[in-house]
Sequence to fold (78 residues):
Amino acid sequence: MVQKLEGHFFHVLKDGKPNVQGRVVSSAIPGWYLVEFFSWIDGGPAGRKLYELSDMKDWIFYRHETEWVEAVAKYSKQ
Fold:
């Protein structure tokens, strides 16, 4: 079953910890997603970019914002 990614939050890990964070905004073209990045400093928007699904294969996705926030707290304790 293919899961829709629109609206999902994500982290991209580096050295086992979140390095990049954001949310999938939309899929205007099949197989391509517009993502919005968020600043680590204030949580505000930090840009948008199109990614092909194959480039997102190692990203960690969260269906709900609370899961995403809790994941950061978990990684911070490591």
Q: What stands out?
A: The first helix runs from residue 65 to 77. The helical segments are 65-77.
